[in-house]
């Protein structure tokens, strides 16, 4: 009887171990597939390496869903835009800032505020759309998402334009430019991924 129980226990342990290994393998394969989906989608963007760097860690949540990919891209860039706005706002107290630089910084803060607002609207609108959805309402909402995201990109470019000319060259311009260019590139990528989602309908 004891030997029979021991054998049953061994078989049970072997079964559980085999099932656990199979499950782990499936999850690994699924995760790999999700990551490949993000990478392939990012290849359609202007800055593919940056796109993949920003979104690959969310692959398991995205799960080969174009809408979820676009939504995640918008969520990431909205957070980054908020951070950039705060950073630029802090630059109003930059040591040795000139009157012209101060005005450019204030204008940039306003533009980045508009960026955050437009990206937030885009994200909210995109969340209303479902993967298989279509029809007039779908395209109207998607048009809004594209318009607001494009407008956000324009705001970011306008911010950078405010620091044009040699008179504005220097550390302040370089610091602000580094933050805004990254946001603009991510916004461009998000717009491309929104278009990928649209192409599936």
UniProtKB/TrEMBL annotation:
Q: Matching InterPro entries, A to Z?
A: Invertase/methylesterase_inhib, Pectinesterase_inhib_dom, PME_Inhibitor
Q: Mind listing the UniProt keywords for this protein, alphabetically?
A: Signal
PANTHER family, per the entry: PECTINESTERASE INHIBITOR 7, PECTINESTERASE INHIBITOR-LIKE
Cross-referenced Pfam families: PMEI
Q: What's the protein name?
A: Pectinesterase inhibitor domain-containing protein
Query: Which residues does UniProt assign to the signal peptide?
Result: 1-24
One Gene Ontology BP term is: shade avoidance
């Amino acid at each position: 009887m004891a030997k029979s129980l021991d054998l049953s226990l061994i078989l049970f342990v072997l079964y559980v171990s085999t099932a656990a290994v199979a499950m782990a393998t499936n999850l690994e394969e699924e995760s790999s597939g999700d990551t490949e989906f993000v990478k392939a989608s990012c290849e359609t963007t202007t800055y593919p390496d940056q796109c993949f760097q920003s979104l690959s860690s969310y692959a398991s949540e995205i799960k080969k869903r174009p809408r979820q990919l676009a939504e995640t891209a918008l969520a990431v860039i909205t957070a980054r835009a908020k951070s950039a706005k705060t950073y630029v706002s802090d630059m109003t107290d930059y040591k040795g800032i000139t009157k012209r630089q101060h005005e450019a910084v204030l204008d940039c803060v306003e533009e980045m505020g508009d960026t955050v607002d437009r990206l937030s609207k885009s994200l909210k609108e995109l969340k209303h759309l479902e993967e298989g959805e279509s029809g007039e309402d779908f395209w109207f909402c998607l048009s809004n998402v594209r318009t607001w995201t494009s407008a956000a990109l324009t705001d970011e470019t306008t911010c950078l334009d405010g620091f044009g000319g040699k008179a504005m060259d220097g550390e302040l311009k370089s610091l602000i430019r580094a933050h805004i260019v990254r946001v603009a590139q991510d916004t461009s990528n998000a717009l491309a991924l929104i278009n990928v989602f649209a192409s599936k309908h």
